[in-house]
Design brief:
With 362 residues, the chain is α/β, with parallel strands linked by helices. It is built from eleven helices and 14 strands. Helix 7 links the parallel strand 11 and strand 12. Helix 1 packs parallel to helix 2, helix 2 crosses helix 3 and helix 3 runs parallel beside helix 6.
Length: 362
């Protein structure tokens, strides 16, 4: 591989020196089997992939109320913090950098996952779909509309989780504002029909996220907090009346904060089904957002190079390719063939498909 590769060049993320522009995207692996504590082999899983310029962890619940899937990790108990500390130390020992993704699923849940509690959301609008619980597949439950006190408590939960991530030694945190989870539910009109200061126009619907950002920045400081958004996402039964203009406003507003990055998801839906939505997300929002942009979804080495060389993005995140190629950066550097992942081992299960993918040998 040419030494002129843009994707493999160094990058300064705030005061963090990244050894390349390859990012490991956050990916749920559903292996936190005991009390939502990261799997005992998670430290090896992440260490194997520490050649990435930056690792963003799997979505990690900020509270028990934020759970929407079995066996996903949290960051709200001492045992969870201790397990994450081990993971961070292993990644740092391998000279890697790692951010923790803070997550609350909102309405994408069921009382079986919440100790009998009803899921919470901006509005009491049930999502179509099912989730897997201890009692098998269940229809997603109708959520409770969050009160102002619920909103205040949830922001405090994010703040506490951010503090816990600092204690565990992470290099920063990532706010999961994509895929139809809680933050996204506040932003989009199909899930937010509130009439108070957190609903109505896009200024009000952005308020929850902006208050979250301000709270977490107080914990972490400048350029240590990132945000992931999916402006053209329809996953989890999402819809918006005016997505281009609404996300234009929100993303422009993010320029008011000294964020580490804006992580943007390209569409995963057939563009013919995206009437009114942006179909070239990073390219469209690049002139609007003045900070660092990470582009995500379906990238190859070639497309990553193209996005950076054409200034559509600064960093490129890779998901499933990192599952099956722990040495992905080295494979890119040497033009080695890529191993395709076994989708049957993405979620749950044992060590197969988790830590047993080998590095490439000639």
């Amino acid at each position: 591989m040419s030494q002129e590769s843009a994707l493999l060049s160094k990058f300064k993320l705030g005061n963090i020196e990244l050894k390349n522009r390859v990012v490991m995207a956050p990916m749920t692996r559903s292996r936190a089997f005991t009390e939502n504590i990261p799997h005992e082999k998670a430290s090896l899983y992440y260490k194997q992939r520490a050649s990435a310029g930056l690792i963003i962890t799997e979505g990690t619940q900020v509270s028990p109320q934020g759970i929407g899937y079995l066996w996903t990790p949290g960051i709200y108990t001492r045992e969870q913090i201790k397990a994450w500390e081990k993971i961070v130390n292993e990644v740092h020992d391998a000279e890697g950098k790692i951010f923790l993704q803070l997550w609350h699923v909102g309405r994408i849940s069921h009382p079986d996952l919440l100790g009998g509690m009803q899921p919470m959301a901006p509005s009491s609008i049930k999502a179509l779909g099912k989730t897997f619980t201890q009692n098998g597949w269940q229809d997603l439950a109708e959520p409770k509309m969050m009160t102002r006190q619920d909103i205040k408590q949830t922001i405090d939960d994010f703040r506490k989780a951010a503090n816990n991530a600092r204690e565990a030694g992470f290099d920063g945190v990532d706010l999961h504002g994509a895929f139809g989870y809680l933050i996204d539910q506040f932003i989009q009109t199909g899930t937010n029909i509130r009439t108070d200061e957190y609903g109505g126009n896009i200024q009000n619907r952005s308020r929850f996220l902006l208050e979250l950002i301000e709270s977490v920045l107080e914990v972490w400081g400048d350029y240590k907090v990132g945000i992931k958004l999916s402006p053209s996402n329809r996953f989890n039964d999402m819809q918006d009346d005016n997505p281009k203009e609404n996300f234009f406003y929100l993303i422009d507003k993010l320029n008011d904060y000294k964020l580490a990055y804006l992580h943007l998801m390209e569409p995963q839906t057939d563009v013919s089904e995206l009437n009114g939505y942006v179909t070239n997300v990073a390219e469209y929002f690049r002139p609007i957002y003045k900070g660092t942009i990470i582009s995500n979804a379906g990238h190859s080495f070639e497309s990553g190079e193209s996005f950076i060389n054409s200034n559509k993005a600064d960093l490129i995140s890779f998901g499933s390719l990192f599952i099956s190629n722990p040495d992905l950066v080295n494979r890119f550097r040497n033009s080695y063939p890529l191993t395709q992942p076994d989708k049957k081992t993405f979620y749950g299960g044992d060590e197969r498909g988790y830590i047993d993918y080998p590095e490439y040998t000639e």
